[in-house]
Design a protein that fits this description.
single chain; alpha/beta; TIM Barrel; 2 domains; 7-stranded parallel β-sheet; 4-stranded parallel β-sheet; 14 helices; 11 strands; globular
Length: 410
């Protein structure tokens, strides 16, 4: 069954009733294109790494534009349509033709999914039953806190009590996955426990916790750091411990990004599956693999288990797919052997990567690795353990085959 994504456009902070206090789009500045895997060979910059990364839209698409785009996508499909996901740069709850859009899409008689909403655009509780009656089957709903005062103060929700009543009603009838950026000292501690209890009692399927990002090291690469000057951030270890503790105390599924999914053992669940590790190809050659600082120890351990000889190095940047040219320039090239494999989704042009990694006069071949080696919590929330393990088995098999084909002889 095929899935159709309906893009309604919209601009972060503009088409969502204003930025939330913790929103990482709040201070986004115009930046030069980073370069990425989509760029032409001799051009740094493309639509993806110059516009899409900033979720840059002129504004909402009209309902007619959405309808035309949807029809065009349907005509390209070869499989039966199984689900429709509504997405965009703005918050769907603020879309001016929202009810008309839902009525239009419900006519296709397949389950509807809202990929993200804060609920800030909903001012009437009746919208919940309207959505249920028109085929909404799943929603990812940013709750932040079930304390209306905190929603009002930090999300700038004009009707927080209404939003929570809508969320409550949806939990009764459809699959609801809550989401909350954990802002230390604001919505953690007892407030976070109250949020978990509230969602559990009302039947939510899960809650994804997102570590508050406030520095370039954490991935704010759009000139947008800090989001809240001087606000404390959690270390990856502190955040993982928080997720582990809460997941063990509540029945709904609780996971975190960038770490971790206690129910599935991801990211890198394959580390605890010796039989699956044995199914990976053996390493026959050597190379240097660059990744984010959070993933580096796990990737090194998995590659060591398949024969070793590969050096995994990481800049300070925590997330591999947010590595840029500046991160490559900070690496110590004395421990960087030829060839070098960079993350498949890193925001750096191939030409710039080769230049940065050969700046000591030693020419190093640069290759892009697989796009994904594992599943973060935003991906794994709708997966089972077998699905995650299969993704990791395929990703690491592709990485090892790349090393064996282009790596240097030992």
């Amino acid at each position: 069954m095929a899935q159709l994504t309906v893009d309604i456009g919209g601009r972060p902070g503009v088409n969502c009733r204003g930025f939330c206090e913790y929103c990482y789009f709040k201070h986004v500045k115009e930046t030069r294109p980073f370069g990425c895997r989509h760029c032409p060979p001799y051009q740094v910059g493309c639509d993806y790494c110059s516009r899409s990364v900033r979720e840059y839209y002129q504004g909402w698409k009209t309902l007619r534009e959405v309808g035309e785009d949807t029809l065009a996508s349907l005509q390209m499909m070869t499989a039966d349509l199984g689900r429709i996901t509504i997405s965009g740069g703005g918050d769907p709850s603020c879309y001016p033709e929202f009810t008309d859009l839902i009525e239009l899409l419900s006519g296709m008689e397949v389950p509807l999914h809202i990929g993200y909403t804060s609920g800030k655009g909903f001012d009437e509780v009746a919208i919940a039953d309207f959505l249920i009656d028109h085929g909404l089957s799943e929603v990812s709903f940013t709750v932040f806190s079930v304390d209306p005062r905190k929603r009002k103060r930090y999300m700038h929700d004009p009707t927080p009590e209404v939003s929570l009543r809508i969320l409550e009603r949806l939990c009764e009838e459809i699959d609801v996955f809550g989401a909350a950026v954990v802002l230390p000292g604001v919505n953690d501690g007892k407030y976070l426990e109250d949020t978990c209890s509230w969602l559990e009692e009302r039947g939510a399927k899960g809650l994804i916790l997102m570590r508050f990002a406030n520095t370039t090291r954490q991935g704010l690469i759009l000139g947008n750091a800090p989001v809240i000057r001087g606000h404390r951030i959690q270390t990856p270890g502190e955040f993982r411990d928080l997720v582990t503790d809460l997941a063990g105390r509540y029945s709904l599924k609780i996971s975190g990004t960038p770490l971790w999914d206690p129910a599935l053992g991801s990211p890198f669940a394959i580390r605890d599956e010796p039989d699956l590790l044995d199914k990976l190809p053996r390493l026959e050659r050597s190379a240097t693999v660059i990744t984010g600082s959070i993933a580096a120890p796990a990737i090194q351990a998995i590659l060591d288990a398949r024969g070793g000889g590969v050096r995994v190095v990481a800049p300070e940047k925590e997330i591999a797919c947010l590595i840029t040219r500046d991160d490559l320039l900070e690496l110590d090239l004395s421990v960087t052997d030829d060839p070098v494999i960079i993350p498949g989704r890193a925001f750096v042009h191939d030409r710039d990567a080769a230049s940065a990694l050969s700046r000591d006069g030693i020419q190093r071949a640069v290759l892009r690795g697989p796009e994904m080696l594992t599943a973060d919590a935003e991906t794994s929330m709708g997966m089972d353990r077998n699905g995650v393990l299969l993704m990791e088995l395929e990703g690491f098999s592709d990485l090892i085959r790349l090393i064996n084909r282009y790596g240097r002889e030992r």
